[in-house]
Amino acid sequence: MKYDLLLKGGTVIDAAQGLNAVRDIAIADSTIAAIEPDISEHAATHTIFVKDKYVTPGLIDIHTHVYYGVTTWGIRADAVCPTAGTTTVVDAGSPGWVTFPGFREFIAEPAQTNILTYIHISGIGLVYGPIGEMINIAYANPGRVADTLQQHRDITVGVKVRQGKMQVGDNGVQPLKLAIEAAERAGTSVMCHIGAGVPLPEILGLLRPGDVITHCFQGNGDNIVDEKGRIIPEAWKAREDGIIFDVGHGAGSFHYEVAQRAMEQGFISDVISTDLHTGNINGPVYDLPTTLSKLMHLGLPLADVIEKATFSAAKAIQREDQLGNLKVGTVADVAVFDVLEGQFEYFDSHGTKFIGDKKLKTELTIRKGKI
Questions:
Q1: What is the pLDDT of residues 291-309, one digit of tens each?
Q2: Residue burial 120-142, b: 16+ Cβ < 10 Å; e: rest
Q3: Ranges of each domain in the chain
Q4: Cα 32 to Cα 11: distance, rounded to the nearest angstrom
Q5: pLDDT confidence of 356, banded at 50, 70, 90?
Q6: What are phi and psi of 161, to 5 degrees?
Q7: CA separation for the pair 159, 140 (Å, rounded)
Q8: 289 neighbors 84 (Cβ within 8 angstroms)
Q9: Are 53 and 363 in contact (CB under 8 A)?
Q10: How far apart are CA 307 and CA 333, in angstroms?
Q11: Residues 38-57: tens digit of each pLDDT
Q12: Is the Cβ–Cβ distance between 365 and 84 less than 8 Å?
């Protein structure tokens, strides 16, 4: 047979190719071999009919914590991703340069899921999350972080830093400055967690085009809206300057009202991610499709939420040539979804309940051509 697997009759959503139309997708040798309006089912060893379903690139979750067994928040990626249409996850700084070798050998390499990572500017990473990893600035070593990034570019995507009072104590934006120093040495980007206690304008003023703000809809203080609910001018300017804004839902960093007010003003996140970890995997986050469903309730069309968790996510981690699209010749990471209609209960990170009328349901996950 010419192809190993054929997905026939589904609506393909692929922002990288400007596609939102019925197409057949053929897979051979773990790659996308063809995408056409009609491919004969007799050309494939195995055909799956996906009429009335949505076929997308495998989802990319750029903010997760999967250093299981070593960090307080680590989950097993393969326990959730194959049932959630998610083929690539990025750990948001669980490993520092000290603990990275174990992350590579025992987490990333054996996994079915494609696992990438940010390296934390703190040498200890997020081993014990409740204690701020940058209260003691001596834990930061930009040179060792840069060396690790340069030596492991295949699975590293940048530098992580958390910039809330709980994480940095009295060090203000100094940890961010050190993270930027490491990133500049390695020629990569920074992902910056924002939280209460460090003024957001100071943070935004330091970031560079291509750097990522995560938890953009957090409501704990020092966020993107002022006391009247208006987007602060510095956030608009940061967007114009090319700073990337990511949802990073988490257990305490997605505030429904902040998201609603921001989106009403046209301030839409560039990327949608979960910040999935032990504290939210059993609610309120669950998985990436659930988070996408929440943003659909807030007004984003299906095609937009898919783009923000595929092509836009791939661009944020500088992997758009490899991931987040269904172009012929790329790795066959594919997801198939249904959109259920009804009454679905969702929660933000602060216990606010809201009812959505749509829910994204994963029907199939294909990683490197394998179901």
A1: 999 999 999 999 999 999 9
A2: bbbbbbbbebeebbbbeeebbbb
A3: 3-56+329-341+359-366, 59-316
A4: 16
A5: very high
A6: -145, 140
A7: 11
A8: yes
A9: yes
A10: 15
A11: 999 999 999 999 999 999 99
A12: yes
Pick the CATH number of 3-56+329-341+359-366 from 3.90.700.10, 3.40.50.1580, 2.30.40.10, 3.30.70.3400: 2.30.40.10
Do residues 336 and 53 touch, judged by C-beta distance below 8 A? yes
The dihedral built from the CA positions of residue 229, 233, 234 and 239, taken in this order, carries a sign that is positive
The superfamily (CATH) of domain 59-316 is Metal-dependent hydrolases (3.20.20.140)
Indicate the residue type of 221: G
Cis peptide before 57 (omega within 30 of 0): no
| Locus of tokens 């809809």 | 217
Q: Which residue has the tokens 């990319």?
A: 60
Measured in degrees and rounded to the nearest 5, phi and psi for residue 269 equal -65, 150
Read off the amino acid at residue 142: P
How many C-beta atoms lie closer than 10 Å to residue 339's C-beta?
A: 14
Three-state SS annotation for the chain: CCEEEEEEEEEEEEHHHCEEEEEEEEEECCEEEEEECCCCHHHEEEEEECCCCEEEECEEEEEECCCCCCCCCCCCHHHHHHHCCEEEEEEECCCCCCCHHHHHHHHHCCCCCEEEEEEECECCCCCCCCCCCCCCHHHECHHHHHHHHHHCCCCEEEEEEEECHHHHCCCCCHHHHHHHHHHHHHCCEEEEEECCCCCHHHHHHHCCCCCEEECCCCCCCCCCECCCCCECHHHHHHHHCCCEEECCCCCCCCCHHHHHHHHHCCCCCCECCCCECCCCCCCCCCCHHHHHHHHHHCCCCHHHHHHHCCHHHHHHCCCCCCCCCCCCCCECCEEEEEEEEEEEEEECCCCCEEEEEEEEEEEEEEECCEC
And the tokens for 32?
């996308």
Please state the pTM of the whole predicted model.
0.98
* 365 vs 136: CA distance, rounded Å: 42
Which residue bears the tokens 């699975």?
155
Question: Residue 353, class by beta-carbon neighbours within 10 Å (0-12 exposed, 13-18 middle, 19+ buried)?
Answer: exposed
Which of 196, 141, 206, 136 minimizes the C-alpha distance to 171?
136
Residue 3 has pLDDT above 90, yes or no: yes
